[in-house]
Design brief:
- The chain contains 14 helices and 20 strands.
- The protein is an alpha/beta fold.
- It folds into two domains: about 300 residues, Alpha-Beta Complex (Adenylosuccinate Synthetase, Chain A, domain 3), CATH 3.90.170.10; about 100 residues, Adenylosuccinate Synthetase, subunit A, domain 2.
- The radius of gyration is 22 Å and the shape is globular.
- Bound molecules: inosinic acid (IMP).
- Inosinic acid binds next to helix 4 and strand 10.
Amino acid sequence: MPAVVVMGAQWGDEGKGKFVDLLAAQAEVVVRATGGANAGHTVWANGQQYKLHQVPSGILYPGTLCVIGHGVVLDPAKLIEEMEYLQAKGVDLANLRISGGAHVVFPYHLRLDEAEEDRKGANKIGTTRRGIGPAYMDKFARVGIRLVDLLDKDEFLPKLTAQVEAKNQLLDRVYGMTGFKVEELAESYLTYAERLRPYMANTVELVNDAIDDGRNVLFEGAQGHLLDIDFGTYPYVTASHPIAAGAIIGAGVGPTKINKVLGIVKAYTSRVGEGPFPTELFDQTGDAIRDKGHEYGTTTGRPRRIGWLDLVMVRFACRVSGITDLAVPHLDTLAKTGVDTLKICVGYRLPDGTVTKEFPVGLKALGQVSPVYEELPNWEWNDSLAKVKRLADLPEGAQRYVRLIETYTGVPVSILGVGSERTEAIYRTEIFGA
Ligand code: IMP
């Protein structure tokens, strides 16, 4: 019985939520192991739309254990808000489990995120301003406060006092901003802790037990490969590890326990935030894809930057994370744009004229490549195609598109997305099969 990691193979927003949600139907445990309230998953189920940020998408299946692992930086105020939103929609939270090892996001992290972005001006990263970077900075500076600390007032208050003093000095002296009062933060965070206490558990034991018992465990990735702190387009990245390895660190399982890594590759590319983007489109085609694909940030509402599918970056993601299967959503979106010819980037031309399949390490080098495209004819779409269950029943153009992705990456496309509903997908291989 496999343990499967689902991850984004581009810049995030690949539509992971839908696939996690689809696979959650077969999973007994769904784990969120990295990132925080910066992530946003939009899932359609039972004709309703759900916007999820910190709660694993598996929550929409009664009986599925949903785990928030210790690799997450948790914003308790936002998590409680999300829990209440779900409960109001009739979703049962009895199976939610949260690791005490998760680091906690405080309002000073959010303010520092804002302050630092504003200070950078034109050089800003374009963060979600959810305090993610500053919270991970505290974690790695070994001054962070973990959820478990909040359960013990004597443990929590001195740590909070030290942090508020330090952050107030930073806010005042470097950014000229007002700080926070320890008592106010303490009061709200102790209240949050009591609200979350019933959900806290030793998630390392839970997840390892589930794997050892042969149950289906799904690790739900957040963000995407190119936003990884080590392998992404640094510094225009998030502060955690969206690559497959992030799931095992953030959940506390060994690499030998993972059976499959499913990489999600949208049929085109999008990104939010700043940084180079070789296949970016600035014309009406880009606008048409944004419009038909509803490409606006779930977390921030920002219009996403849009470009052609870039297989150089997808190949890079496949290598770094050992991706065993790909899922390709939004095949319908490309068709719906009505554009005659589609382009797929199959190489980067360097300033000296040579063409490479290697993704450059340096940001300057990435800014200097020009994409080499293969062109394929677009295909007609009608709504009945959203019900199709075999690749062979899709238009020839869509089949060629999928075959090119497979040939280039050497990884099979096991799932295709042909509509926004969770049933509108084609499975070519059982991900939770042998
Ligand atoms: P941060 O994670 O808020 O620090 O933002 C760092 C970078 O990651 C920015 O470019 C964000 O737009 C991007 N980012 C963070 N979370 C997501 C996500 O869930 N989808 C897409 N981009 C994201």
